[in-house]
Amino acid sequence: MFNSGKASLASSPKSAVRVSIFLTLLIFGLLRFTAIMVVHAQSASDPGVRGGPPGAGNWFTNLTAEQQGEFQILFSNFTEQNEVSIGLSGDILRTGLGPRFDSNSCNSCHGYPAPGGASPPQNQLFNVYQLAGAKNEMPFFETPNGPTLVARFPFQSDLKTVDGHVHDLFVITGRSDAGSCNIQQPDFVTAAANNNLIFRNTPITFGGGMLEIIKNSDLINNGLAVCNSSQNQGVCGHPNLQPDGSVGRFGWKAQNRSLLIFAAEAYNVEEGVTTEFFPNELDETPGCILNALPEDNIKFDLTLPPKRFPGDPERFAITMRFFAPPAPGECPGGNSASCTNGLIQFNNVGCGLCHTPSFKTPPNVVTPLSNATANLFSDVLVHHMGPCNADNVSQGQALGDEFRTPPLWGVGQRIFFMSDGRTTDIVQAIEDHFCAANSQYVASEANQVVTNFNALSAQNQQDLINFLRSL
Amino acid sequence: MFRQVAHSSKTSRSRRIARVLAFSALLLMLPSGLTVLGAKQPVTVKDPGVRPGPPDAGQPIKGLLQAEQTVWNATNTTFKQVNSVTGTAPIGLGPRFNSNSCASCHSQPAPGGASPVSNPLFSVYQLDGAQNTMPFFETTNSGALDAVFPFLPGTETGDGTVHQLFTVTGRSDASGCNISQPTFQTNNLALRNPISTFGDGLVEIILDSAITGNASAVCSSNTLGICGTPNFSGNDGTVTRLGWKAQLRALQPAAYFFLNVEMGVTNDMSPNELDETAGCNPNPLPESSTNFNSGIPVYDFPGDGERMAIFMRFLAPPTPGSCPGGKASSCTNGQTQFNAVGCVLCHTTSFTTPVTVTTALSGITATLYSDLVLHHMGPCLADNVVAGAAQGDMFRTPPLWGVGKRVFFLHDGRETDIVKAIEDHSCAANGQYPASEANAVINNFNALAGTQNQQDLINFLRSL
Lengths: 471, 464
Fold this sequence. Notes:
heterodimer; A: mainly alpha; two-stranded antiparallel sheet; two-stranded antiparallel ribbon; 13 helices; 6% strand; B: mainly alpha; 28% helix
């Protein structure tokens, strides 16, 4: 059912797109009395996930000794597995899972190529969903080698009233630490049949400390410069402004302002752990609130080390803030000239219009975050991506067809691409940026750029792909 | 906005005239027999004003553990600290700001409360050489007011953000910064009066299902047209409940948010300055952040937002005081009338908190007199500001605990007379917004005119 629902949304316009690319290129070629470019479309191949060391997952090396000294405890919070109540392991610091949840640890989804990263090659939810006696069924869209996907319903069950929230995959019912809680998983089959089910793939958090501190004005001015440029190829994004007027920057729709609020949100939404930021459970069915609220909380014990005082979101945020950005690796094929040319082609065809190569951070109290160049390859703005990518979910000022330009640092080690993880082939991911308008949504802003990409020579195109996989 | 204020005071003037006429009509009836029967004089309802005596608020909630009390004492200092731009901590004020301390606006009748009678901004705006002019809507006795622009200036695009009143330009600790105050225009200006934070540690933890369950029970059972809707967090979908539009979820994110929005102090949740003009960002970001120094007290590890939230979370709800006029039976009857006319349909008497990790906040009856949901209040109160599910004419039912000590009423502080504040709940529809949901209740209230019942209702409110 998912296939029929989603296929009609994605595949058929895509084939129409290919035809239109072909025609465009053909006309373009004829006008120039050359047809060379046409034959090169789709000729590049994805070398795949870059081998070698992760190149990510470590803290910055130039933190103070006091900051660096906190790594073990703070990092262990990121990888800890939460349980429902104290009954299981006896560790009060790990209670709070559920009553609804997607997983039991940050690391289970943010695990590749290192903790803090994106979805791993083996879907970790298969190790989680029936843990401790839970009776969950695995939703049809989760597969052992697929991305870990979070589900949202664009609309409520009347299919009219806006919803847009995450609907957690699993419930704690049946777990030995979940008392008499008896609730059901959402009905994803019906939602899919009603074309009311969308997915979100896990983004990485590496380099998030740089991303959150880039000046609002730098992001806004960069976007305005592109919009006002005669060479923008139809690209013109806008910020997802927050209630204080600052620029949202985390998440597929740039809906979250900072690592701290993201950490607190995800703790409740993904794991069901209530905090001082979001202190109530998402499901309050009698028998299912098994702990005092909020389950994660400030520890009023003056004898503990200071880092133990605040709740987990503060520690998660620090952990992510101190993660260095992914380090680029070797150029696939071993020829570094290929990646050097690839970056030139990347900018020539116009990828760099949205995937802005870098921003500089302003002075910061944390040395490695201060006056640093963040090579994130993103403008951190949201763009219309056409009906083929639209998920009908509005978040803040990002509409149903708008997505944040995902940063490309670390993309060489990314397995799943696009908001819903629909492809593992980076060439296909680029092609998926192309989409014609329909009656509901405008065409993708990337159409001209993808057309340019398809017009590259085979070597230039492959170099561009190699460059991406070197990141 | 201001046109609406003017219009509304015109409305209340005509209502006053109507009341005078009604009263005169009653007087005319008197010789025809009532005096003969020896009946009492009709009662002219009057706000007894801010209740005198001790603040009845501002203390920590009873039952805190020793360590919680110790931390609260420290956070009390954070809430009252005066921020400067640069120099000795606490720093980070500006480049745009409304005031330099939480307690400057939240001080009546004690730190944590609402706007004091004398506008505190007059002692802030030109401090340390700042060259600010006072915006026209701030007067020495207007209460401290925030400014929100409903629309981006010159457009019909929604804005809805706070536009800070002042800049650091000219201050001796802000050399090199040269920015101007916003241009405040009456046709694009919504004003916001500070809200008391007492008891919010209870409010933030009330179950979502208790709030939504109460609201839907009211919708389906009353015949007076009252039906509120919750506001929801875009983050996790839970019920937001603090602020004039119930746009805020909990004290902790709210504290971090306002630390930057009201004072300009960047922090771990809101790490960039809201104005980045060259020369105006003298400090490394964020200005209030995690403290990794060894040997600090445990509560100094996180930034100020965390401590401000703890301070508010542990503030006890206001305690009701003696009934104005000294007759307890007046306030007892007043509450009966409050319920009978239908005030209680929105101003829900109480909620009970669930089991929480803080014993002092756990299983407590929070007598807040609010349903914590949004209602259409008509074009007379509408401010055209959209915040989440709250439309331009919708406001959260403000909790009434502590209202006996409140100086300014309604979101823009337009009234100091609680009787007028009640009358201001009444408003007919216009082409843009439906009528106020409170209209039938206000009619019921007005039907009490001339009776002791109406005065008792007012006395009850001022006893809270």
